[in-house]
Design a protein that fits this description.
Blueprint: E1 11-12, E2 23-24, E3 38-43, H1 45-49, E4 59-63, E5 69-74, E6 81-86, E7 103-110, E8 113-122, E9 128-131, E10 136-142, E11 149-150, E12 165-166
Parallel strand pairs: 3-9, 11-12
Antiparallel strand pairs: 1-2, 3-6, 4-5, 4-7, 7-8, 8-10
């Protein structure tokens, strides 16, 4: 099973807490694996509409308490959606997904901003959890991400997985 391990790395550019410091973000990547078993989180229009989504490439990422990336989902321009949270593949010794009863953290990546979402999600294999209420959130880090230009349309033949800023080259 393929799983990407990704850990957010945000640091203050000025350590003086009394000053107006800005943060820089290393944006999390999207999940691309499939461990064979997952939990589905349904995201209703009420939940989607409560989030500060403005970038056409906005997506959610899901992490275990050990910062293992276990799911992602695009969220721009949708009225409702779902987020697959992938469980650990029991056929290998590698921990490549969420384990039973683990608390799952979810973040919104919107352009160069990352938001922590205040959700109570406990991983249960083959279950469905519906987010039906507005979601509270806080800024995790924002700004200063280095733009990587390329085609960001996943349906285009020249889609660039590493790009975070569309350059108009999509075909």
């Amino acid at each position: 099973a393929l799983a990407l391990s990704s850990e957010l790395n945000c640091s203050d550019s000025d350590s003086d807490s009394d000053s107006d410091s800005s943060s820089s973000c290393e944006l999390p990547v999207k999940y691309t694996g499939n461990t064979g078993g997952n939990m589905t989180v349904m995201i209703t229009s009420t939940a989607i509409n409560s989030l500060p989504i403005s970038n056409p490439n906005a997506y959610l990422v899901a992490y275990t308490p050990n910062n293992l990336l276990v799911g992602s989902s695009d969220v721009y321009g949708i009225t409702q959606g779902s987020l697959a949270i992938w469980g650990d593949d029991s056929f290998t010794t590698e921990i490549d997904g969420a384990s039973a009863d683990e608390s799952i953290s979810v973040q919104l990546v919107d352009g160069t901003s990352v938001y922590d979402l205040e959700l109570d999600i406990t991983f249960v294999l083959n279950s469905i959890n519906a987010l039906v209420s507005p979601i509270n959130y806080s800024v995790f880090c924002e700004g200063d991400a280095i733009p990587i230009f390329g085609c960001t349309d996943e349906l285009a033949c020249n889609y660039d997985l590493g790009a975070n800023t569309d350059d108009g080259s999509c075909e």
